[in-house]
Amino acid sequence: MADQSEATSLSARRQALLLATVQEFIVTAEPVGSHQIVARHQLGVRGAMVRNMMAELEDQGYLHQPHTSAGRVPTDKAFRFYVDNLVPAPRIGFEDRAQIELHYSTRRLDVEALMRDTPRFLALMTGQAALVMAPRLESMMIERVSFVRLRERQVLTTFVAASFGVQNHVVDCDRDHSQEELERMARYLNESLVGRTLEEARRWIEEELSRERAQYDQFVAEALALGGVVAEHAAHTELYVDGGLRAIEQPEFADPERMRELLRALDDKTALLDLLERSFKRRGASVSIGSENSDARLAGLAVVSAPYVTGETPVGSLAIVGPVRMEYDRLIPLVEYTANALTRLLEH
Fold it and tell me: Where on the phi/psi map is residue 195: left (φ > 0), alpha (ψ -120 to 50), or beta?
């Protein structure tokens, strides 16, 4: 975030000039000169005064001049000031809202298909790369687990979480089990796990495995071990990414090295999941600009993210990633509205 005391120390006229400069740069992607400001914005000052104030803003770290004959370019600090001072708070446009409502009104609740579709849709709507973190099931209530024998020493495990459908995984076992044994194991686990969250179930299984009964009761030990495998698989968080090729059409990525940096960043799912994990804990949309991103590969990029929830519980998040020169007044409410659309779908 920009230093608030320094930002408020800017005179109203300098604040207006800074906001106008950022707006011009967002539209043109070119250094902004004093003549543009005078011609297109009613600031009530002459060109010479604008040039002087722009030089002062450069001294304060809000603008920089690529070379002496060029205009000035907003820094990350200037974009942070701009985002923090979007007044009134940006609201989604009618056309964007209508497209989102239409898109999701035709979607059935197949969670995996929904997660794959959303970044494609977001990338199409925004022209940026888009990410969606699939629902984290740790906080979801377990409805049931079941086991089916496929062949010798191989079991199909099924985990059903409230609102999030079914997850199936094939597990290789140390010994063979009859279908009757597997059904007994599932009944034993369901008696204790149904109604718990996945995180609570994992803790319960760990506690039960450490108890004396699990040391001498082979059935209990094997049931708990199989339940632990189900919980471990279900806790895996999936990330869906789309739109990298759309993002590189932005003029900032005409430089091949910057283009490669973006594509490398989008390829590192561990770092991207970490990025979404942080936004997951916030309410509403959040914006991370350039050097505010902890991952060095994102230092030249901006991220607009928002969580989606079930009830009061955040379960996942989505984001767009693109150049710092981004149409924030449109894209912030668009990302947030899309997250809210996912919330509504998952709750019904």
Answer: left
